Amino acid sequence: MERSGYVLGAIILAGLSIRLALAPYSAGSDLAQFYGFAGTMLEHGACFYSYADAIGFWDKGWPYPWPYVYGPVMAYILALLRYAVNGSVRAFWSGGSYHVYVNPTWAFSVKLVFILADTLVAVLLYLLLRERSQKLAILGVALYYLNPITIHVSAVYGMFDGLALAFFLLGLYLSRRTRVSYALYGFSLAVKQTLVFPAVLSLWDAVLRGRKAAPRIAFFLLGGLLPFLPMILLCPSSLGALPGLMKGLNVSYTLPLSYSMNGVSSLATYIHLTKGSDTLPVLQHWYVPSLLLLALVFIRHSFNRNPATSAALAYAVFVSTYWRVNPQYLVPLVAFMILLAALEDGVITTLSLFTAVYAGIWPVMQPSSFWFHVHMENPNWTLVHIVDSLTFRVFTDGPYVAYSIGLTLLLYAVILFATIPYLKNLKSWLTERIRVGA
């Protein structure tokens, strides 16, 4: 085995060991809610979405009134896990306080899926980058797999953005097998819809192929619709509930501020809280800069048809402009920034690498030990103290607003440096078309 192989193995072993050591002793609130979702899926099967709203959540065995607003893939996985390992979640009022405790068996079982997805992402990054440079590939894996934010999301809090990312990256890796590749892009949206901008970019790439577009788009749709097939066949009325579930995503102020990763939204919310100003219209028009920046990425892709770099830029547009960016959205961002840094050069590489590192600062700022005791009935206090010693435990809003503004500015810089030069190509193309037309 080459030396690089040993280094890669050491990185994977180190990252995996950290994740497995943390996973049984912490749990985010979503893990508790996932237990309720799993029970509803087991009870109602293909009619799941008809019962996925927050109405009567307590009678459904849910600890929180949060609807299920994702594609069905995760619901299937959760149901399978609950059937296989059962576990438990206890929710009750005591002394005027509401307590939600997650059984370690459930927490670890669900997180194991996320950890495996995280590991697959690391391997796929290596495979995508090794042709460019073996050293870059190793560096990319280390920057992703040992990044505090990816460890936090998969092994501490527990969220499945890495799972959707894994399917999308697998599609990029299998790009020579066009049908499979586009089916995977579509399938990733059925896992979590936050990859919609990279997915739309892949459709634009298909359109640019001319007559080859139709089969690519067809397989994209097939991949996206396949997980819904049991519902379409057995309980089509269930899908009618989806628009109602999505209404819960109405634009609002982004509280708590420590969990808002979009600088514009964070600043608008902070001004509203401290000055009383009505800044909600700023958030409600998030789509204006989003469409403008996405158009720049589309123009660039028309002249530089690299699906990996264009998908990375499309996701950067999402994180920099969407009104509600949660910490788990930074997991795909880190991976895409690593791809962009390796496949581009100059200032884009520097900015992308810095952004990937910068994203990892957030869990270190946080009092991350909170998730090691708030939902654990018998906390591992030794681990709580260790996490406390490794984090800054910032409790005030100001530093988080500054952090999110810094992240958004970095992403704007990455996007503009990567796309603006291609406007010259567009100008030349339009000039040539006018001459030919004349």
Automatic annotation (TrEMBL):
Keywords: Membrane, Transmembrane, Transmembrane helix
Record-annotated membrane-spanning stretches: 7-27, 64-85, 105-129, 180-201, 213-233, 253-273, 285-303, 333-361, 400-423
Record keyword Secreted present: no
Domain of life: Archaea
Keyword Transmembrane helix: yes
Name of this protein: Uncharacterized protein
Species this chain originates from: Thermococcus barossii
